[in-house]
């Protein structure tokens, strides 16, 4: 029995993934309302980055300090302690967005009912699948015209390759949206639009008198037909399969009008998981292990010139954190004291005195941490959690240094920024470091790079965009004769700083063609660990 059993088992740490505008912020805000963490709609909205030109970025970053890009919102609801991890989107979309998923125990996928599965959702979904974490689907905006729910299910299964199990089912949509039918309780809940929506909503059993009047004859008939189809066609609910990420429970609702949000939250909290064990060099570490352990999944550099400090975000994997505690920084090879940790409570940043497995803390970083580092109680020795993979950049540019006399600063600066995980750097396959190619997940990172090199290292650069969008790591590369790979005309061979070869492509179909042309070759969309 763990010393911290009660605290840890009530924790639920998850990320919300979606394509921009699907309703992630609105849904988060409604969750916070239920948790009483905020009492006014719009509080989360204020945190959100306004749509902005890239050139405005610095000013915005200054204004928002670390708060917008910060990592987690914590609140309490019905005895649970909930940590929602923010997955930055829009222009903030970067490798950090992917890394955040490494800290989550499950994911909520928000889909716009009129748009279906969109590009950013697909990318984030792949990371969840890689980790085999439970994935829950909230199909949003039913108060607007929506795609047919069967088509939406089909699309999720086809495009994402995950089986679906609807927990409730919509009756109409848009102007004709009448409500949802709960497949478990057999009840119909009528759609009532509300902003905060903390009121009771009328519900009826499907086959009692009045149910037909409740949703109208057309809606009722259609529902009966749908139910028949559903019972035959879709997966049965199976908690084990949900836990392994093989089936996604699906919910329909409308975040804006707060319809279906509370039902979703309640079901979700029961079906999702308390903090999961994590794999390490000494085997699985249970969250209930009494010793403290954590890993760094994100490093946030301070953009303010006067404060060059950074914040390292850590996911606590076991035990309890106490302010000022002494820990092993495994990769750094020394003992350190974790002072001044911070945590996001709803919309404010606060100093935390204690935190438990499942929680995220932000720790002041004088420049010692790297992505993937392990921090643990000295009693755990030098065990290390599995590293974090590098994720595929989608934008590439050749870096030209304006003043060649400053070569040393340039290499130092760009290597440091790469180490923090903001960018990835590569070299030409044949010529090496004379030419540096930089790859980023989101284009904003190009501006971050340029700005930081100028301001912190006094080095001016020019970035010449390259036409590549797809990168593949070569599996078992030591045994592959890369020079002899039979490529496509849009393919470019490069290598990383450790001389590992990679392939870049301009067209999405080219990696497949290369696989066909080179029997035995194996390519991966995720890189080796940090
Ligand atoms: P995010 O980019 O995924 O965080 O999306 P937001 O939460 O900012 O929502 C994008 C837009 O969709 C906003 O204008 C919201 O008001 C709107 N929206 C969100 N949920 C709903 C919904 O259930 N119904 C309707 N009609 N609009 C919604």
TrEMBL record:
Residues 9-276 form the Tr-type G domain. It comes from Anthropogastromicrobium aceti. This is Peptide chain release factor 3. The keyword GTP-binding applies. InterPro entries: EF-G-like_DII, EFG_III/V, G_TR_CS, P-loop_NTPase, PrfC, RF3_C, RF3_dom_3_sf, RF3_GTP-bd. Increases the formation of ribosomal termination complexes and stimulates activities of RF-1 and RF-2. It binds guanine nucleotides and has strong preference for UGA stop codons. It may interact directly with the ribosome. The stimulation of RF-1 and RF-2 is significantly reduced by GTP and GDP, but not by GMP. PROSITE patterns: G_TR_1, G_TR_2. GO terms for cellular component: cytosol. Keywords: Cytoplasm, GTP-binding, Nucleotide-binding, Protein biosynthesis. Belongs to the TRAFAC class translation factor GTPase superfamily. Classic translation factor GTPase family. PrfC subfamily. It is found in: Cytoplasm. One of its GO terms (molecular function) is translation release factor activity, codon nonspecific. Pfam families: EF-G_D2, GTP_EFTU, RF3_C. GTP binds at residues 18-25, 86-90, 140-143. SUPFAM superfamilies: EF-G C-terminal domain-like (SSF54980), P-loop containing nucleoside triphosphate hydrolases (SSF52540), Translation proteins (SSF50447). GO terms for biological process: regulation of translational termination. The keyword GTP-binding applies. It comes from the Bacteria.
């Amino acid at each position: 029995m763990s010393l911290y059993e009660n605290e840890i088992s009530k924790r639920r740490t998850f990320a919300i993934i979606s394509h921009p505008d699907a309703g992630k912020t609105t849904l988060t805000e409604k969750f916070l309302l239920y948790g009483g963490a905020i009492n006014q709609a719009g509080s989360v909205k204020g945190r959100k980055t306004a749509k902005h030109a890239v050139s405005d970025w610095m000013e915005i970053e200054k204004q928002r300090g670390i708060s917008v890009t910060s990592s987690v919102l914590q609140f309490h609801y019905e005895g649970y302690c909930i940590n929602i991890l923010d997955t930055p989107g829009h222009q903030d979309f970067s490798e950090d967005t992917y890394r955040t998923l490494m800290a989550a125990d499950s994911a909520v996928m928000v889909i716009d009912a009129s748009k279906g599965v969109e590009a950013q959702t697909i990318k984030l979904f792949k990371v969840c699948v890689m980790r085999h974490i439970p994935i829950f689907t909230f199909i949003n905006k039913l108060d607007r015209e929506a795609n047919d729910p069967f088509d939406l299910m089909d699309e999720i299964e086809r495009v994402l390759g995950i089986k679906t199990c609807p927990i409730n089912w919509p009756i109409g949509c848009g102007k004709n949206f009448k409500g949802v039918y709960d497949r478990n309780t057999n009840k119909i809940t009528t759609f009532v639009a509300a902003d905060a929506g903390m009121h009771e909503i009328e519900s009826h059993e499907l086959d009692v008198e009045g149910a037909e009047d409740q949703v109208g004859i057309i809606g009722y008939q259609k529902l009966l037909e749908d139910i028949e189809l559903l019972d035959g066609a879709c997966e049965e609910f199976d908690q084990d399969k949900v836990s392994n990420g093989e089936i996604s429970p699906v919910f329909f609702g409308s975040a804006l009008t707060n319809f279906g949000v509370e039902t979703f939250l309640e079901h979700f909290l029961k079906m999702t998981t308390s903090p999961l064990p994590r794999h390490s060099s000494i085997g699985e570490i249970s969250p209930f292990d009494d010793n403290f352990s954590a890993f760094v999944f994100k490093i946030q550099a301070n953009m303010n010139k006067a404060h060059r400090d950074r914040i390292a975000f850590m996911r606590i994997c076991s035990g309890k954190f106490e302010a000022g505690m002494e820990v092993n920084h495994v990769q750094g090879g020394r003992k350190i004291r974790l002072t001044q940790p911070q945590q996001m409570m709803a919309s404010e940043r606060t100093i935390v005195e204690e935190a438990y497995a499942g929680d995220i803390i932000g720790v002041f970083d004088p420049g010692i941490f790297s992505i993937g580092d392990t921090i643990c109680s000295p009693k755990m020795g030098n065990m290390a959690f599995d590293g974090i993979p590098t994720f595929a950049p989608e934008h590439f540019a050749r870096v030209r240094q304006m003043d060649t006399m400053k070569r040393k600063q340039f290499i130092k600066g760009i290597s440091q920024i790469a180490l923090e995980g903001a960018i990835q750097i590569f070299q030409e396959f044949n010529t090496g470091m004379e030419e540096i190619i930089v790859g980023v997940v989101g284009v904003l990172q190009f501006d971050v790079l340029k700005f930081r090199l100028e301001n912190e290292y006094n080095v001016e650069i020019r970035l010449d965009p390259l036409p590549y969008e797809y990168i593949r790591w070569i599996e078992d590369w030591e045994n592959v004769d890369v020079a002899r790979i039979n490529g496509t005309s849009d393919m470019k061979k490069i290598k990383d700083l450790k001389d590992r070869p990679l392939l870049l492509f301009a067209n999405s179909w080219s990696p497949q063609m290369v696989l066909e042309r080179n029997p035995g070759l194996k390519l991966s969309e995720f890189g080796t660990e940090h």
